[in-house]
Design brief:
It contains nine helices and 14 strands. The protein is α+β, with helices and mostly antiparallel strands. A hairpin with a 4-residue loop joins strand 8 and strand 9.
């Protein structure tokens, strides 16, 4: 696999420096993007969130220029130009001496790694099975508020779900309320058709698709709002998950939960159609001029 590292396309899988703080301490942030025909979807929104995380961690964002061109180059070099692909942008504080303190050297520079792989298969019509995880998210933690490379709780939760024969894990917060899934945001459609999702203060990551849905309520004709979400509301509603690779996916509690009503299915289909239209428009807007 050809990747981009600190200014060059490379193939050496041993290229990361052993003193890099991202490798040693999880000191960095990342973004995962859907790429279609070499075009990254919602790139500006991803870069805005990445820069917000970098600012919170006091890491320079100066090396993020031309990311779209870099991803297009990776699609061509890895023969993924005609397929759906998954790009990952990882930016760490860079090389450093041992210890937790930030390096004081002016010569310290951030590490930028961009990779591109084939996107995972997405069986849209098959609801994802959810189980409750023992691992929690704290809304006050910087690891919950930003997409940092310190992802251990999410890793453990996802593997916990796999061991239970489920597709995803529901992560609660320290107050016993729903925060998110291990790699997705959670929404639920109530019996009256209103849609709820936990606010970021509850431990939910501010996902790109989540942002779009919250901002499109009037345009899509659906009432979507943020509210603390108890597990009972999840059981009584029709849950669905969102992230940049799966888009919107219906979900169900493994071994429980209610069968969605025609109204709830209709609301989901309405949101899914709006999202696909918005994604298509994003690709047209981002396509290079012929």
């Amino acid at each position: 696999m050809i990747f981009w590292l600190n200014g060059d396309y490379q193939e050496n899988p041993m290229a990361i420096d052993i003193t890099d703080r991202g490798f040693l301490l999880g000191d960095g942030v990342f973004e995962t993007l859907l790429v279609e025909a070499g075009i990254p979807v919602f790139l500006d929104a991803h870069l805005d969130r990445l820069k917000t995380g970098l600012a919170a961690l006091s890491i320079s964002a100066a090396i993020l220029d031309n990311i779209g061109d870099i991803i297009a180059g990776l699609a061509e070099k890895n023969d993924l130009g005609s397929e759906k692909a998954s790009a990952r942008i990882t930016l760490t504080r860079g090389r450093s001496d041992r210890g937790l303190l930030f390096a004081t050297s002016d010569s310290m520079t951030a590490t930028l790694l961009v990779t591109l792989t084939r996107a995972p298969a997405n069986t849209v019509n098959k609801p994802l099975n959810l189980v409750m995880s023992q691992y929690t998210r704290c809304g006050a933690s910087i690891a919950s508020r930003y997409k940092t490379t310190n992802y251990l709780d999410n890793i453990l939760a996802r593997n916990e779900a796999e061991a239970a024969g489920a597709d995803e894990a529901i992560m609660m917060n320290c107050r016993g309320r729903v925060a998110c899934a291990s790699s997705a945001n959670i929404f639920t459609i109530k019996e009256d058709g209103d849609v709820l999702t936990p606010p970021c203060s509850e431990g939910a990551l501010n996902g790109i698709v989540r942002r779009l849905l919250l901002g499109c309520a009037a345009e899509a004709g659906v009432n979507i709002s943020e509210a603390p979400l108890g597990f009972d509301l999840l059981q009584q509603g029709a849950p669905f998950l969102t992230n940049s690779l799966i888009g919107l996916r219906q979900a169900r509690l493994k071994g429980g939960g209610c069968t969605p009503t025609l109204l709830q299915v209709g609301i989901f289909n309405q949101l899914e159609a709006w999202y696909q239209d918005r994604l298509h428009r994003s690709l047209i807007e981002s396509a290079p001029a012929s």
